[in-house]
Amino acid sequence: MQLSQRIKQRRKDLNLSQRELAARVGLTPGFLSQIENGQAIPSIESLQIISKELGEPLTDSDYLVEADAKSPVVRRDRRLKLLLPDSDVTLEVLTSDLKQPMDVFMVTLTQEDGDLAAALSPSASEVCIYVVTGQLEIKLGENVHQLGRGDSVYFDGIFLRRLMAASEGGARFTMAITPSIL
């Protein structure tokens, strides 16, 4: 049974509404609904809170990979989504098998989202970013770089100090991280 189904079934077994469980674990009812319908995946921190509230262990392996995922193709309307802790930023997972040594994400970032560097903290990782639309400001060590549409950057994660949208309309970019942070 998939994680989303396990969460939903256990919630029902405990006679809890989505609204009640969401309030207990600090999520919105809408986001909990997306989790239960397999349209979003919670952060590891949220998963631990849900697991404790439901009184059922939900392991990371259940959370990260669907048992029947065999196709290497990920359709744009079927991407898994990962909500970063302490953030409203959602990473769309572009890879079909999360057990690979590299993560690839599509990220939409607005100026209101602020600095993404702390939420990512890919300290022991190599990172490559390609800007699809908009502009990014990235600080690596003491150097600040402005990236626009079509620009890319490759760096060691320990140097990341700031990652922010630098254009009014925000920015959309792909990000590859190795080794995997999931």
Would you give an account of this structure?
With 182 residues, the chain is α+β, with helices and mostly antiparallel strands. It folds into 2 domains: 62 residues, Orthogonal Bundle (434 Repressor (Amino-terminal Domain)), CATH 1.10.260; 103 residues, Jelly Rolls. Helix content is 26%, strand content 29%. It contains 6 helices and 9 strands. The strands form 2 sheets. The protein has a 6-stranded antiparallel beta sheet with strand order 1-2-3-9-4-7, with no helix packed on it. The protein has a 3-stranded antiparallel beta sheet with strand order 6-5-8, with no helix packed on it. Helix 2 crosses helix 3. About 5% of the residues have low confidence.
Residue share in helices?
25-40%
Total number of helices: 6
Assembly category: single chain
The dominant shape is: elongated
| Gap between N and C termini | 21 Å
Radius of gyration: 17 Å
β-strand amount: 25-35%
What's the helix-strand series? HHHHHEEEHEEEEEE
CATH architecture grouping of the largest domain: Sandwich
